[in-house]
Input
Amino acid sequence: MVEELVFNVGRKLRKVRGELGLSLRQLSEKVAVSPSTIQKIESNQISPTLATVLRIAKGLGKEIQFFLDQQHEPTSVVFIPKKHRQRIKAPDLNFGIELLTDGLSDQRFSPLILSVPPGGKRGSHLRHRGEELQHCISGKVEFTIRGKKYLLRQGDTLHFKSDIRHRWVNVGKRAAKLLMICSPPLHIGRNSNEK
Output
């Protein structure tokens, strides 16, 4: 419940900022909240205080209920400019995650960009329901699925049932980028469905 509420505030703030075409700094000046705090709220890295949510709502001419209401308004189209993508930074991950889109009504998949430094990995065997598609944009990433290794180079794609144990590592000397599509959607910033 609390995690869902915090996720709603970040998601709605990011959406409103995108609709208004405001940079973090511009929004910061408008609502009297630091750019770093806004960025952390949008990426669900911190839980904003009620006073902060109130200040943001007031600065944007919204009722506080707009940010706290858990009712999801139906959304058929989501446009997110590159500069407004949600970037996830988690202390336990040695790679970066960019959420390409979020907020579509009944969204059936999560598209992400993973930026993986040399040696970066998801080392423990993962399992979660659904399917996963991994497309290598750049670099070399080795996946291990059921003990079999698959080396993805630029342009290569791997598609698999994600309830099979899997892991991966950047085996190249340069950073790698992967386009990852998961179905059903991962709930980044909420409770992940990884096991």
The domain at 82-183 is CATH 2.60.120.10 (Jelly Rolls). Helices lie at 2-20, 24-31, 35-42, 50-59, 64-68. The longest strand covers residues 131-138.
